[in-house]
Amino acid sequence: MRREVQTFVADGPPLPDWDAAEEEIDRRGTQLEAITKPVTGEEAAALVRCLGPDDCYGVAWTLLHLIETGPNPALNAKPVPDANEWHHRLYDRALFEEPDPTT
User: Fold this and answer.
1) For residues 39 and 72, is the Cβ–Cβ distance under 8 A?
2) What domain of life does the native source organism fall in (predicted)?
3) Backbone angles phi, psi at 77, to 5 degrees
4) Of the candidates 25, 99, 97, which has an alpha carbon nearest to the alpha carbon of residue 62?
5) I need a surface site. Which of 4, 6, 24, 67 has the fewest CB within 10 A?
6) CA distances (Å), 56 to each of 2, 19, 22, 65, in order?
7) Would you say the C-alpha torsion 31, 58, 90, 20 has a positive or negative sign?
């Protein structure tokens, strides 16, 4: 796993919520932007655990899109009903993804 991913994962799961300080959210966003695409399957699995309870002022969307650059699906089983909404969103997006006609 690349150092940038290890740093991001080690700093928390999950992402901070809306109540976090602006500096914390900015720091996590900067860490996320340091991770180049695509991610590996191992990195995607580690990053999934970082999805938090809300969108973290857009940082969660950036994280979700980064996870989607890895081998799909990042989640192989449907999340339990009370799982994090981001896990449901990630699973649903992979489930309904249009197949790439070039592959």
Assistant:
1) no
2) Bacteria
3) -130, 150
4) 25
5) 6
6) 24, 9, 10, 14
7) positive
DSSP string, 53-86: SS-GGGHHHHHHHHHTTSSSPS--SPPPTTS-HH
39 within 8 A of 69, measured Cβ to Cβ: yes
Amino acid identity, residue 71? P
Q: Are 24 and 57 in contact (CB under 8 A)?
A: no
For position 40, what pLDDT does the model report? 97
Identity (one letter) of the amino acid at 73?
A: P
pLDDT in tens, 58-76: 899 999 999 999 987 888 8
Ranges of residues in the chain whose predicted pLDDT is under 50: none
Spatial CA neighbour of 74 closest among 32, 46, 34, 33: 46
